[in-house]
Structure formats: C-alpha cells, structure tokens
Amino acid sequence: MAPEHRRSMFRPCIDIHEGRVKQIVGGTLSGNEEGLKTNFVATQPPEYFAAKYRDSDLEGGHVIKLGPRNDDAARRALEEWRGHLQIGGGITADNAIEWLDAGASKVIVTSYLFPDGHFSLKRLQTISSLIGKDKLVVDVRHVVSFTLATSESHVKLSCRRRGDGWFVAMNKWQDITTMEVNKENLDMLSQYCNEFLIHAADVEGLCQGIDKELVKRLGEWVTIPTTYAGGANSISDLETVNRLSGGRVDLTYGSSLDIFGGTTTTKMPSSKVKAYELQSKSKNDLTKQLSELKNELLSLRVQKILGGSASKLTRINVVRKSIARVLTVMNQKQRQNLREFYKNKKYLPLDLRPKKTRAIRRRLTKRESSLKTLKQKKKDIHFPIRKYAVKA
Question: Residue 100 and residue 107: Cα distance in Å, rounded?
C-alpha cells in the first residue's frame, strides 16, 4: 500500500526554569544568571499550559526542564495530561522509567549521551533497550540544533553551527561536541529512537524566523518523526516548514505564541493536522489510541475539570471528535487494504463494487434502466412479486 501523504504539524512546548514557565533566548542560557534573557515569565503554573494544550487537542508536545529545581513543576504538568506530553532535561538511564511512570509519553535525552563531550553509543543502546525504542526521543541542539525521539523516550541533542555544518551542543547549548549532524549520524541514531527533536539554539527565542537551510536538510535526511524548534514567529512558518521538508518535519512555536506574550494564536487547525498524524500510524497504534480515548471519555463524565463545566464540555466534545477521526482513518485503511487484496481478482466484496449514484441513474435511458442481470431474471421467474387485492 502506498504511504499516505503527510503534512507538517504544530507541536506545543512548556519550558520550565526555576519552577516557572519561561521563554528564554536560547543562546543566553548558561550558568551565569546575570546574562539570561527572557521573553516571557508566566504567572500561571505549568499545569495551566498543559490543560490548554489538552483542551485544544494539541498532541506531541514536550516539557523541558531547564536546570535544577524543576522536577515538581514538571510532574504537575505531566499529571494534568498523562500520556500525552514528552519530558526532557536531566534524563538518564537511572530516572527514565521514573518519568514515564509520572505520566510522560516519551523521554528526551541529550547530555547523557555525551560524557566528556564525546558521543557514547553504549549509553544510547542502554537507555533504548531499558525503556524501548518507541519511548525515546533524541534532542539535538545546534546553534543550529535538532532532537530525535522514539515512541516512549526522547534523546535531546543540541547543536551549533560551524562553517558549513552543524555539531551537537550540550549543557544548556554552551559546550559543542565532536558529533556532526548529518544523514549518516541521524540514520545511526534512528536505530535506537523513533523521533528527533531539533533545537536551533542560534535563533531560538529571537522570533526572527526559522533556519530554512537546516529545515530543508532535515527534510532530506530524516526517516523518523522530527520536530524543529527555533525562530518561528507566524503561522505561515508552519507552511514554510511543510514545503521545505516535504511534510517530514514538524514545528514548535515558543515566544511568538499568544499564551507566551506573542501574537501567534494557539487556535490552530488541530483537527486537520491530527488526521494526517493518524494516517501515518499502524493499525495497532490506532486501536490503542481509540481505547485510550474511549476510557478518557468515560472518565470525563464523572471527573472534575479545571476551568468549570464549560471546560469539561469542551473537552468531551474534543474527545468525541478525536474518536470519530480515529474510526474514520481506521475505516479508510481497512478499505485500502481490501482494495489491494482484491486487486485483479474476478469477484469483489459488495462495498468495493462501483455504486450507481443518483446522478448516474438519472442519465440512464428507459432501455438501460430496464436491463436486468441473468441472476435477477431467474429470481423474477422463480420468485415473482405477488399482487394482492385488499378488500375494503
């Protein structure tokens, strides 16, 4: 079966620094707090933003802990929407399972893979085998940077640009490693994770536009789901990423979003985006997601939702629409599989046979309308329509 065409999607994020949600200019994040530049500091707790993403049905988001003393805040955000947010920042093989148990859908790793600034394949293999490839995301940051992710864990790598290439950066994007970001290395990493997270640290937080050259290269290199973050400042950037990457790279908005003090609305067309995401999933993944949505709908009927009854009704409506989209995509995939199975065969199932629409029937002549198949003629002979006179 031919693969479904995919479009780039909007991926939400929550960056936590010193226990609060902030939008930070990437290149200023270091041990020296005096040089730190922030675009936004939220008065609301992290779980508020998680609830916003949940109510808008924005899947695939990530929570990033920037420095120490952020664990409690991150746990509250994950608990608000269990199983739907990825977690990154200080993730190692020792605590990865703990964060998955706390409600993370995947874990994101970067610095852990680079002891002393050199890539350790052994560490990547260890954490991948421990939690499963589908739970791992690799985050690559460059000043230009990028990230990889698997279904349950996420490896976070940052990279910086040197000359004509990009190299992975670590430790809040300040230390540049010896690992170059290229097709060969991405192919190697993708054997142990199922998603990349790419941070362009040179442009992150500046709202001055995305790194188009990097996005184009990623579209040519990556073979697994990939999310780019850095510089997005308008909704049109999503279409630009889709065009440059051929729909292979998703986009994260940060400082430019209205909920973070920017001007870009968070009311993005998530329903259409979600349909493209569903079409790329396997039958088992769709069945699992359908089961989760049905369980969530059952719990919503007796659960108290942050924001009052209006918010609860909104969420129920979102879940119902999500269930409908999953069922629609499952039906489409089933019909496509049937078409492939019965291709060039003599007999077709009834639901795959061409139907006479009303417009086609109206164009038939009287003679064409009166024509009957041999089977129908025999049926009329042996089982004629009985006419009865009803006595008044």
Answer: 7
d(CA 194, CA 207): 28
Is residue 245 exposed (0-12), middle (13-18) or buried (19+ Cβ within 10 Å)?
A: buried
Task: Please state which CATH class domain 287-341 belongs to.
Answer: mainly alpha
> Mind giving me the DSSP string for 229-290?
ES---STHHHHHHHHHHTT-EEEE--TTBGGGTSSB-S---HHHHHHHHHHTS-HHHHHHHH
Three-state DSSP string of 89-158: CCCCCCCHHHHHHCCEEEEEECHHHCHHHCCCHHHHHHHHHHHCHHHEEEEEEECCCECEECCCEEECCE
Give this prediction's pTM: 0.65
Q: Tens of pLDDT along 266-293?
A: 554 443 446 767 877 888 888 988 898 8
Q: Domain-by-domain residue ranges, the chain?
A: 10-267, 287-341
Token pair 């009287």 is found at 366
Of 42-51, 134-143, 284-293, least confident by mean pLDDT is 134-143
Residue appearing with tokens 């259409």: 272
CATH no. for 10-267 = 3.20.20.70
CA distances in angstroms from 84 to 37, 68, 102, listed in the order given: 30, 23, 12
8 Å CB contact between 92 and 112: yes
Please answer whether residues 210 and 228 qualify as being in contact, where contact means their C-beta atoms are separated by less than 8 angstroms: yes
CA dihedral angle for residue 133, residue 56, residue 54, residue 225, rounded to 10 degrees: 10
pLDDT digits (tens, 9 = 90+) for 311-366: 677 778 888 888 998 999 999 898 888 888 998 888 888 778 777 788 888 888 88
Helix (H) or strand (E) holding 203: none
Q: Are strands 195-200 and 136-142 parallel, antiparallel or unpaired?
A: parallel
Separation between Cα atoms, residue 374 and residue 352, nearest integer Å: 21
Confidence of residue 158 (pLDDT cuts 50, 70, 90): low
